[in-house]
## 1
Amino acid sequence: MSAQSVATLNEKFGIGTELRFATVADGFNVAVITNSHAAASIAIQGAQILTWTPRREKPVIWLSPGAKFVVGKSVRGGVPVCWPWFGAHASEASFPAHGFARTIPWEVTASQRLKSGATKIAFRLPQTDATRKQWPHSCELELHATLGSTLDIDLITRNTGSAPITIGDALHTYFAVSDVRDISIHGLGGAPYLDKVEDFKRKQQVGPITINQEVDRLYLDTTADCLIDDPRWARRIRVHKHHSRSTVVWNPWLAKAEKLGDMGPNGYLNMVCVESTNAGDDVVTVAPGASHALRVEYSLERLR
C-alpha cells in the first residue's frame, strides 16, 4: 500500500492553520499542530509524536537535536511506539528490537478540533507482506492522540482473529528536563525492578529515582503515576497511565549516548525516558474479538 501524500493528507485531514501536513526530509512526512493550548508535531512514520510544548512552557516531549529523519529508522526522541513486542524478539534475533510499528508509515484515519480547543488525530497501522512475516496474526493497531493542555495517547490493539494473541507494547516517551542530574522521579518507591545495566539483577526501589549514571530499569507490578520533579524549571511532569503494570526508566549516560550517535552534544543530560509498558511478565493476552488499550495522559504541574 502506498503512503498517503502530503497533498492528500492536507485535503482530507488538515484543519486550517491548526493542523497541517508537511515534508521535513525525503519521504518523511509530519503533522504539525498549533492550537490555543500547545504546539506539537507527529511523524507519519511510526505515528511517532515528536514534540509537544504547551503554550508559555518549555518543551515537555524531548526531540534530540541530533535526530535524523530517515525512512525506516526510528527518530531519536518523541514517543516511539513499541509493538507487538518490547525489547528483543523472544525467538527471532533478526527481527527488530521493540517491533516494527515505529519504523513504517501509518495511515491517518481521522482528525478533529475538540470543543476544549485541543486537536485529536487518529492513525492506523497498515498490514503488509513484510509485517505479516514478523507478525502472522489477524489484528488491528490504532493510535489516537489528543494534543492540548495535556497530551493523551491511546494505543489500541484489536484481535480480529479466531485465536488469542499475546503482545508486549510501550510508549517509549522521552521527556525534556533541565538537567537529568537535578531531577527526581517519584511514584515507584517500593517497586521491584530488573536492572538491565547489571544483567537484569532484581532489586527494589527505595525512595525517589535520581540519575547520575546510566539507568535502564524495568519496574514491575506498578500502576502508579510517575512524577518527574524538575526544580530548575519549577515544574512536575505527571505520567498517568491505564492498562499497564510495568514502567521503564532509561537514560543512556555519556558513553552509550556517544555510541548511539544521534543524541546531540550532551543530549543525554536534557532527557529521561519514563515508559508506560506491558513488558517482561506484564505482556498482555488479547482474546478473539477483544481489544487492549494502553493509555497515558501527560500533564504539567508547577512546583512553586
## 2
Amino acid sequence: MDSAQRVRAILSFVQAADSGSFAAAARTLGVSSAAVSKNVAGLERALGVRLMNRTTRSLTLTSEGSAFLDQARIALNALDAAVDTVAAQRAAPSGRVRLSTSNAFGRSHVLPALPDLLARHPALQVEVDFDDRRIDLVRDGYDLALRGGQVADSALVSRAVCQLPLVLVASPAYLARCGTPRSPAELAQHQFVTRRFLGGKTFAWNFRAADGGLTAFTPSAAALTLSAPEALVQAALMGVGIAQVGAYLAWPHLRTGALRVLLPAHHHPGSFEMVLQYPHRALLAPRVRATVGHLLEVFAADEALHVPLEALLAYTA
C-alpha cells in the first residue's frame, strides 16, 4: 500500500469509526460506501490485523482497532497542522457553520458572540439551533455543539468552556414573605421551583452530609416545575419560591440584588461543565476552526462564565 492509499485508508477508517457505518463515512468523505469498505479492508490487510467487526447494523472496533484509532488521529492531526500552516496564510474562512446549543446558553452567550465573528469573517454563514435535546454531531450534520452537564467521553474533541456550578436562589420578596432557611432541614417549610428534564426526571438538589458524603434532596411538592433553566430564574425573580439554577444564569440578578444565595455552606454545586465539541481535528474545516477559536476567545473573557464560588458568598441571604 503506497502513501496516498494509506492516507485514504486511514481517513476512511477514522471516519467510519466516528460515524458508526461505512455509509455515513462515505457521505462525509464524498465517496461510495464500497470505496470506504475497500479502503478499510486494505488497511487491515496491510497491518495484518482486524480493526473492525462488521454486522449489517453496526461497526465495532476491536482492541487493535481502538489502539490504532488513537494513533491514527495523532498522525492526521500532524498532517492537518502542516496543511494549515500554508492554507491559513491565503484562505479566508468561508461557508456555512452549523452549531447546536441549549436555549439558555445559546441566547445568553453564543448569540452575542456571533456579530463579531461575522464581522471578522464576512464570508461565513452561521446556522444555530437552540435545542436542549441531545444530538449526534456527525449523523445530524452539525459542525459544532455546545453542551453542559456531566459530559461523557466520546470520539469527539471536547474543548472546555467553563465550569457550571449550581446555586440555590430566591428573591428578597419571597424571603421576606416566607423566611430564610438556615439549614437543609428548614426547606420543608418552603416553596420550590424545580427543573424536570425532557425525559421526565426531576433534577435533585445535593447537600453535604456530616460524614463528608452527599445527601440528595428531590423537592416532591414543588410549587412550579419547569423544563427550561432560564425559566427557573424567571420564576425565582417573580417570588414563586426557591430554585436551583446555574450560577452563570443567576449572576447578573445577584449583582443587582434581585436574587439572593441560600445555604452555600450546605449546598453542593455539582461537577458540571460546559464544553464545545466537534469531530476530530483531521476533518475540521477552516470555517469551523475559525468559529471554534472565536467562541473560545469570547467565552474565556466572559466574566459571568467564570465566577468563583467564593464570590457568590457576598450575595448570601
